[in-house]
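name: query_chain
kind: protein
chains: 1
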Amino acid sequence: MEFDLALLREDAGAAVRSLIAHIGPGDGERDALVDNTRELCGSFVTIAAATLLLEGRSQPFFLNLCRSAENWRRLLAWLESRGLSPPPASWGLTPLAGAVVACHWELATELATHLTSRFQKETESPVEFAWAHVLRALVLHGVRGEDPTPQLETLERASREDCWPALAWALVRADARAFESAFETALSVHTARTEKLARSFTVRVDRFVAHRFLWFDGLALLRLARRQGLAVHERGHRYCPPLALAPVTERYQGDWVLSLGQG
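structure:
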């Protein structure tokens, strides 16, 4: 599967402008609003990844990840305020990871609190649901000190690979050596999955391109490890380039958002 990052970024930018202009709570049913907002958030992630990879610029990368996270947060808050069913928790994984990578801890915390606790078996697997809630729990543990044990135990029951719960437990216990070991194993699993998807003829290129080159969950875990003060070796990993973990110097100002109210 080949990618023209410049063209995909251009297409994503056009999609963002169109979606921002036309998506609104009065524009259709709940499902259309969710699908269009998901498309918008994915477009911001594509722009973020392409800008980092093509130009080596970290700050626009972080800003566009925040735009994705903020729009997903607004959607969840709006649905919740009207008693409408939320999208699957796993659909919010990349927006949440993006807020963490961008070190926007307030946004990450708010988004984490809005992720649904209801498993939706029609649209997500048990391990996808469990992993989304583990990242949620790790954020709330790091920021608020909340106990992540129930979510980690759920992941232990759901996951076929031991590396995922081991990675989360190592982070909670601040065990740098165990974290690095589990991270390397998890990266190998992620690499195999990504390469398999790259050979698939059924994957939408525009939705996959950012994930082809960047592992947002892994970047988020590395960011959480740094925040916690773990002595993790500062070296680049595949799908986790150092530029994606550079210091954040430009604060997101809440631009490029849907008109769904503040939530």
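note: The first helix runs from residue 5 to 22.
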